[in-house]
Amino acid sequence: MPYAKGKVTTMKKLLLLLCVGALMIGVLSGCSNGSTKVNVLEQENEALKKELDAVNEKNRKELEIRRLLDKNSFEIIHAMKNKDIEVLKKYLSEETTCLDDKISSKQYEYSFSSVVSENRLQTYWNWGEETNLFHIGYSIMKIENGIASPIQEEEFEYRLENGEWKLVGIAQQ
Fold first, then answer.
1. How many angstroms separate the Cα of 50 from the Cα of each of 56, 61, 102?
2. Are 140 and 152 a contacting pair, CB within 8 Å?
3. Which position among 37, 43, 87, 112 has the lowest Cβ density within 10 Å, counted as fewest Cβ atoms?
4. What is the number of alpha carbons within 13 Å of residue 118 lying toward its C-beta?
5. What's the CATH code, domain 5-172?
6. Which of 5 and 36 is assigned the larger pLDDT?
7. In the prediction, which pLDDT does 31 show?
8. Are strands 133-144 and 147-161 parallel, antiparallel or unpaired?
9. Do the beta carbons of residue 155 and residue 136 sit within 8 Å?
10. Cα separation of 1 and 133, whole Å?
């Protein structure tokens, strides 16, 4: 499972700060005149714990969304391969339309004939929490003689609409 490098580093820094804070509290608690410092450190430690909890909650929520949208992406691909318009429509955003052989919106147009029946590997994701957009990138892999080679890249763009993630479009790269 891929992890965003910056988030892991941030969590490591917060954990290190929590450990240092706990150590400082332990050292200073033995000093009779260090009660003010102990109080300050305890407050800082509590603030860091709250910050760490917020980061962990955001990461948990992002993982939950990624799993849901990854599942939706594969259901969309399957519906396009089978030309199942009714199933496909339930995943589309308000601005995206579905005709007999393609889905389209202002920014995207994706023909059902573009669907590749090869292995897909999720290679990246980006959650714009403020914009309610979520992008998931896939490498489409061809496997020959036990060797996987990327043959195409696709990016699925989802938007949160009325509490549900809906497909805005698919871009090929």
1. 10, 16, 47
2. yes
3. 43
4. 18
5. 3.10.450
6. 36
7. 54
8. antiparallel
9. yes
10. 21
How far is the first Cα of the chain from the last one, in angstroms, to the nearest whole number?
Answer: 23
Segment holding 49, helix H or strand E: helix 35-81
Question: In this structure, what token pair is assigned to residue 155?
Answer: 């990016």
Q: How far is CA 118 from the centre of its chain?
A: 23
Tokens of 130: 């403020």
Backbone angles phi, psi at 95, to 5 degrees: -90, -5
Cβ 169 vs Cβ 149: under 8 Å: no
Residue type, 10: T
Q: Are 130 and 121 in contact (CB under 8 A)?
A: no
Q: Tokens 């696709």, residue? A: 154
Report residue 97: phi and psi, to 5°: -115, 160
Per the structure block, which two tokens stand in for 43? 């407050």
Out of 32-46, 60-74, 85-99, which region has the weakest mean confidence (pLDDT)? 32-46
Domain boundary assignment for the chain: 5-172
Condensed to tens digits (0 to 9), the pLDDT of residues 99-110 reads 878 898 888 888
Beta strands (DSSP E) in the chain are 97-98, 102-104, 109-111, 119-128, 133-144, 147-161, 164-172
Task: Retrieve residue 60's tokens.
Answer: 């948990």
